[in-house]
Amino acid sequence: MKNSNEMCQPLFLPFDCYELSVREGTAASGPLTHYYAEFLLIRKGAAGLSLDGKEIILRAGEAAIICPGVPHCPFALEAEEARVMLLRLDPDRMPPFPDYSPSLSAILAEARKQKLPMVLSAEDMEKLELRGIVAGCAGEANERPFGYDLDVTLRLGEACLRVVRFWMEKGLVLPRPEEEQLSIYSLTGYIQCHLRNGLRVEDLAEKCGISYPWFAKKFRDVYGVSCKEYIERIRVSRVEQFLRFSSLDLAQISEATGYADCSHMIKNFKRIMNITPGQFRQQEQRQESPRN
Fold it and tell me: Burial, 168: exposed, middle or buried (Cβ in 10 Å; 0-12, 13-18, 19+)?
């Protein structure tokens, strides 16, 4: 089965949000699977979706929830184009649920296991007031004002909570939080929380209870990049936010994002972004000037 990370980058922010067109010739050649969750809302027209072995038709106002690891593939209906709003979110990096609750990843897995509804009708969307949340996420992600990443993650956290309550009304029994263990599929939240601690791939493999060679291979299979590269790109995304929205100097930013020294940060940022941190900040300031 093809991993969708062959087709797109992993989530270096906790989310991604964009609109796309589903029409003839745009569908993947086979089922996709990935470590993050997706929320797919039909804004206009209709589209087909192969979801966990079943084919369904989604029409304007309806939505589908795609849990991590679930095989899926959108496809166009004959002579009809659909406009789709797609939210991708890493459940292990969303705002945490209360400490008496299992993690969002565990809830999603349990909802799939208990065969809870993964398609929301237009009436369900209206009842849960999810269309406004989706529109708000799209607007923030597109405009990227100060604090947009916090705004979007909080909105997505609210959407997730509403969906979980909806499932509980349908009979969802929550798993026990004490039964959860750190695994290769739930590392992203741990990485984000410990980004300043000098993370080592060997230590992450040990925490997952598997050998380093197998961990390295499995991580690339699941996330589409090596674990080391994933960590570096998460750091660069954090550096980018500091450069855009703070006045910290480069030495302070390198310390805040877990780099051993400033030169390492500059080198890594340029490798990934094709521009130095100083040039990036100047570029952003020039773009902001006309607005002021």
Answer: middle
pLDDT at 170 over 60: yes
For residue 129, the tally of other CB atoms under 10 A from its CB is 11
Its sign, for the CA torsion 10, 15, 140, 163, is positive
Return the ∠ at Cα 66 (arms to 61 and 68), rounded to 5°: 160
Are 129 and 158 a contacting pair, CB within 8 Å? Answer: no
What's the first-to-final CA gap in the chain, in angstroms? 50
115 contact partners, CB below 8 Å, separation of at least 6:
none
Q: How many helices (H) and strands (E) does the chain have?
A: 11, 10
The Cα–Cα gap between 50 and 36 comes to 17
Contact between 118 and 53 (Cβ < 8 Å): no
What share of the chain has pLDDT > 90, as a percent?
49
DSSP bridge partners of 44: 83
In the chain, what is the greatest distance between 2 CA atoms, to the nearest angstrom? 56
Share of the chain above pLDDT 70, in %: 90
Q: How far is it, in rounded angstroms, from Cα 38 to Cα 41?
A: 10
In the numeric block, the tokens 């799939």 are attached to 112
Confidence of residue 52 (pLDDT cuts 50, 70, 90): confident
Q: pLDDT at residue 286 above 70?
A: yes
pTM: 0.80
Q: Which helix (H) or strand (E) holds 83?
A: strand 82-89
For the chain, which domains are there? 2-177 (2.60.120.280), 183-291 (1.10.10.60)
d(CA 172, CA 176): 13
Answer with the residue of higher pLDDT: 7 or 145: 145
Helix residue ranges, H only, 25-129: 104-113, 122-128
- DSSP at 76: P
